[in-house]
Amino acid sequence: MGEYSKLIREAAEELRGYSGRVGLVFHNDADGLCAAGISAHTLSKANIDYKLMCIEKIHPAILKLIYSTDCRLYIFLDIGSGRADLIARLCEETRSRAFILDHHDPMRVDSRNVVNLNPELYGFSGEKDVSGSTATYLLMREVADIKDSAWMAVVGSAEIPGPLTGLNRIPLEDSVSRGDVEIRKGREEAYNIRIFNKPWNKLSSILTAIGSIGYYRNGPYKVVEYLLSRNIDFEEAEKLEEERKMKFNRLFSILAKSKLKVEGVTQWFHIHDFLKGFGTKTIGTFCSMLSYRNIVAQDKYLVGFMNFEPTLPNLGRIEGDWVKVSIRTPKALSEEIKSGKMLPASELTMKSAEAVGGSGDGHSFAASALIPFGKEKEFIKIFNNLAIMKQSSLTF
């Protein structure tokens, strides 16, 4: 881990010596929520004041709200790496600092104000070796003794398929040594969170439900409280999941009749305000589920749009009118991306979003963006052109 370990130790030393208020900016899925829980637990132990700020996307209008607070050190948890340039720009303008603890495809920036601790920059895979909550745990355990929060990183890592590998084994081993997690051997290694007597992946789904479906109902902040108190309201999660299930079933039925719009190498749909009141991460969850349905072509990028509600809980209203974009790559297309025949979803999304005045990030097989309202068709056109240019370059 060489250089990566050195940077972690230096960042931890800086954090221990910080006397102001720290802004904890986190994503609203289980990984981001667990990263926030680990961070809040650590800073409380270290007697460092903090403010929790949950966001669904990195975007200039959202960052403007974040950087209007009284914090001068911001820690981005499971979010931010793909738009480190925007974070660096705001840090320079406000004379503040930022640590980025993320595992999404990163952007390299040369800034004295930003410390990007994304393990992908140091030879690890964000899709196999490390989650956002593990990256967070690796830093925070250098700040205080927090082995009692290692189980959170295990839960957060459940978004990565299969048994935990790479850096994700570190919090796993720490949580097992404390008796918080039990490794169960079988056809495939699995993990039981003994605190709640639930499988790590089931608990991950529960937290994501509260944080994403309930984003506009204070869900993420409730989850952080649940994690810190080790007392989760499972009934709340069940109600939210049932509400989402009913909406999704209606949406599946609508799309089965109306079909997807197909243009070039993309297939897309727009649900407008159909999921109003839900966090916009739900459109990503829906796209993931939809990608396995018969109405979806397995060799084309799947793109879903929904209108974005501009008032963010605990932060305020952002300027402008925006649309959330979620992209998934069905199975056949994912294989073409792996082989280099097609571009990663993250690269196409970031470039297309920026071209229409928005901002995007993500992984090779799943990405998302926030773009101006009314720019959806232009986004699709640019996305297609970029993807087709890649295909054409391979024929020569």
How would you describe this structure to a colleague?
This protein has 396 residues and is of the alpha/beta class. The protein is 43% helix and 18% strand. It has 14 helices and 16 strands. The protein has helices at residues 2-16, 30-45, 60-66, 84-94, 132-140, 150-156, 169-178, 200-213, 219-229, 234-258, 281-290, 331-338, 345-355, 376-393; strands at residues 22-26, 50-54, 73-77, 97-101, 114-116, 181-184, 190-193, 198-199, 261-263, 266-270, 301-307, 311-312, 316-317, 322-328, 359-362, 366-372. Strands 9-10-11-14-16-15 form a six-stranded mixed sheet, with helices on both faces. Helix 2 (30-45) crosses helix 9 and helix 13 (345-355) crosses helix 14. 49% of the residues are buried. The mean pLDDT is 94.
Short summary:
This protein is of the alpha/beta class.
Question: What keyword list fits this structure?
Answer:
single chain, alpha/beta, 6-stranded mixed beta sheet, 5-stranded parallel beta sheet, 16 strands, globular
Number of helices: 14
Helix and strand string, N-terminal first?
Answer: HEHEHEHEEHHHEEEHHHEEHEEEEHHEEH
The 3D shape can be described as globular
Determine the structural class based on helices, strands and strand pairing: alpha/beta
Mean pLDDT: 94
- Number-wise, the strands total 16
Strand content: 15-25%
Report, as a whole number of angstroms, the end-to-end distance.
40 Å
Helix content percent band: 40-55%
Radius of gyration: 20 Å
User: What about the largest sheet?
Assistant: 6 strands, mixed
Low-confidence stretches: none
Strand order of the largest sheet: 9-10-11-14-16-15
